[in-house]
């Protein structure tokens, strides 16, 4: 009887001990988090976490859209002969779909990893510069030096992928826009008349030059343009023959994964059908 009581009491005691250990561990972690001595180091970890989360949230939907809309062979085109689950074409299409999903996850992982790595390098460099500073405080040039070192370490070395190029170009555009706004601030010594004219005309000139330069470059030097932009411009400005306007075969529809083929105009089953006249009209234009 005593042995039965001991066996029934033992799980309760072990669960109480485990819960006590968990509570004590939580108290230790909370004490470390709230300790001001570790605030700078925890800020580095939090910046890395936020960089990874932000990179994944930004890149995943972008990669999903670009891969499934502008990569050839993304959608599964099936015919009546391919409805067998184990047909070779089904297997090939599944392999291609898996490759597209791999590209999406690869771009998402790279974007998240690079932003997290840059956050670690930047925050660590800022902490090092502040500790080694004679005043023990942050100086005006510390942010520039930390950004310079982080940009070279993460985005500047070696052969860069398209993901890194897009990140750097995005940051460059925002940096140039911010510098342009700094030039028209009141403390820069610019007169009110000149500041008004620059503010009113700067954006129209910038937008016009940007579109003019990119269209000229795409027309005469398309090999120098980034691949995703080049494919988008090709779809909008080059593939313009009339049947493609009615049947956009170059851009798969996200609402349909079955391949639609036009019946032959010589087929007797469609010879007298009203649709056959439209089909013959489209074929005569191709």
- Total number of helical segments? 10
Could you state the order of secondary-structure elements as H and E?
HHHHHHHHHH
**What is the helix content?**
over 70%
Straight-line distance between termini: 93 Å
SS-derived structural category: mainly alpha
Query: Strand share of the residues?
Result: under 5%
Low-confidence stretches: 73-78, 249-267, 269-286
Q: What's the pLDDT, averaged over the residues?
A: 77
Task: Round the Cα radius of gyration to an integer and report it.
Answer: 31 Å
Largest sheet: none
Overall form: flat
* Tally of strands: 0
Topology:
Blueprint: H1 2-34, H2 39-70, H3 88-132, H4 142-156, H5 162-182, H6 192-220, H7 227-237, H8 242-246, H9 268-271, H10 274-285
Describe this entry's structure for a reader.
This protein has 286 residues and is mostly helical. It has ten helices and no strands. It is flat and about 70 Å long.
Can you give keywords for this protein?
single chain; about 290 residues; mainly alpha; disordered C terminus; 10 helices
Can you give me a brief rundown of this structure?
The protein has 286 residues and is mostly helical. The protein contains 10 helices and no strands.
